Inverse folding.
């Protein structure tokens, strides 16, 4: 990390260099398309929105234990109170399935909808292969059609206990109760989830009528949910508040997101969701104004606050605004972190300005900041898209000598890219080089290269590579 004395140098360096980068062209669009395998900054920045949940360390994906006390606190009879079979009011923007459900899903939904006394027996007779994805799809269809899902969920919990640990699945059950107006059972369930440290996702609030309703009605619905979250407390309150704000921001309901903060608390993490969402929709000035609003209420923007905005500006070719933001960061004493550098590096790589990107990388290392895996991926893929294959190899070699922790991933990515462009022999040579350096190849990459060599009838190379790999495996186990 740059020291405070070198911070001004870093910021001035950014401003002096970033202005040379142009707007997105056809080459950069190709880079974006071809970079889906290892997602650099834009995607990793979006993922970090989910990871920024306040006190997220206290949340778990689920709990293995299923105490009898927890079950008794949330019994089936209580769940049936005030449940009406009525269509749930779902947002048009939040219709959770955009394809026709499978026939098996339709049949399960119909069986649950009928609600016969022997429903559980009929479900058992079907010998269903329940996966998280399948269960989520069933719950989504039940929610959209306003069919009570709690009895079905109880059957799943008994027949497949491992499914009782998924935040995604449990959030859909919460949404089902909310959509049916069964807030008493919703509160009971949230209390049980909080006791287990389970977090909620945005799917828990898909039933809220955010679009197409008057503001007073929306405020009333949101306020009721907030009150329930507050009463539930624990992980559901913290993660639920964050997820609710994120859902509202994703729907551009920023006034409602602000309302949630007014009813709960204003936090930098919550404002960062708004900055991220406004940048996604191109409202950069409004995102910039949020930095002032954060300070107005006595808080301080953090690394993500600036990185979300910087990423949006660079991605949309707003170089002047990006330079102004860097000046502002310097003025407020902000120290660039690994993601800040990666945003600029990624933008330069997708424009095939790799020499500029390398200058930023050198400045990054001079500041003592270790590049992230996605930063390395941006360089390697950038060199490949520019057909500078030898330089891609040199980059991987140099970085493996400097940063041992990323060597396996970088070499495996290089081999995978060679294989994808049809250079299977070169991909094999990369894997051999890895093994000779004592680096373990990525197993799927190794298997695909072996399969391609076999398909090309290069039997000698297949035997040699297999022998090297197994000797490496054996020596690794012995050591």
């Amino acid at each position: 990390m740059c020291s405070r004395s070198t911070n001004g140098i870093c910021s001035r360096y950014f401003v002096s260099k970033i202005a040379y980068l142009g707007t997105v062209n056809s080459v950069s669009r190709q880079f974006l398309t071809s970079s889906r395998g290892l997602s650099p900054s834009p995607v990793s920045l979006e993922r970090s929105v989910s990871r920024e949940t306040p006190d997220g360390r206290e949340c778990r994906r689920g709990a293995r234990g299923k105490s009898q006390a927890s079950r008794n606190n949330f019994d089936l009879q209580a769940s049936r109170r005030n449940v009406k079979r009525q269509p749930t009011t779902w947002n048009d923007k939040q219709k959770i399935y955009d394809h026709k459900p499978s026939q098996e899903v339709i049949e399960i939904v119909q069986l649950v909808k009928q609600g016969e006394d022997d429903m559980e027996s009929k479900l058992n007779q079907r010998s269903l292969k329940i996966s998280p994805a399948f269960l989520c799809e069933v719950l989504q269809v039940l929610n959209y059609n306003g069919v009570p899902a709690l009895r079905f969920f109880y059957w799943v919990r008994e027949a497949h206990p491992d499914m009782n640990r998924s935040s995604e699945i449990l959030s859909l059950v919460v949404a089902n109760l909310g959509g049916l107006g069964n807030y008493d059972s919703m509160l009971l369930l949230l209390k049980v989830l909080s006791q287990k440290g389970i977090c909620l996702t945005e799917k828990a609030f898909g039933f809220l009528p955010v679009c197409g309703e008057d503001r007073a009605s929306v405020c009333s619905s949101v306020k009721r949910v907030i009150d329930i979250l507050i009463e539930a407390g624990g992980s559901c309150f913290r993660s639920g508040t964050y997820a609710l704000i994120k859902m509202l921001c994703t729907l551009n309901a920023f006034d409602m997101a602000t309302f949630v903060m007014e009813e709960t608390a204003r936090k930098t993490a919550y404002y960062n969701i708004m900055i991220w969402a406004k940048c996604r929709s191109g409202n950069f000035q409004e995102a910039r104004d949020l930095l002032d609003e954060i300070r107005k209420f006595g808080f301080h923007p953090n690394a993500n606050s600036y990185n979300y905005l910087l990423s949006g500006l660079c991605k949309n070719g707003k170089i002047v605004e990006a330079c102004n933001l860097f000046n502002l960061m310097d003025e407020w004493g902000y120290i660039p972190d690994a993601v800040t550098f990666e945003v600029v590096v990624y933008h330069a790589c997708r424009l095939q300005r790799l020499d500029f990107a390398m200058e930023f990388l050198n400045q990054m290392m001079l500041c003592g900041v270790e590049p992230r895996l996605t930063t390395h991926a941006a360089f390697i893929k950038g060199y490949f898209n520019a057909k500078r294959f030898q330089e891609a190899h040199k980059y991987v070699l140099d970085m493996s000598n400097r940063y041992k922790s990323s060597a396996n991933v970088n070499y495996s990515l290089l081999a995978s890219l060679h294989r994808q462009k049809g250079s299977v022999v070169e991909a094999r040579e990369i894997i051999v080089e890895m093994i000779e350096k004592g680096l373990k190849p990525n197993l799927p990459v190794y298997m695909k290269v072996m399969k391609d060599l076999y398909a090309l009838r290069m039997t000698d190379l297949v035997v040699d590579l297999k022998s090297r790999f197994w000797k490496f495996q054996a020596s690794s186990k012995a050591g």
Remarks:
- Confidence is low (pLDDT under 50) at residues 1-6, 23-43, 61-96.
- The longest helix spans residues 459-478.
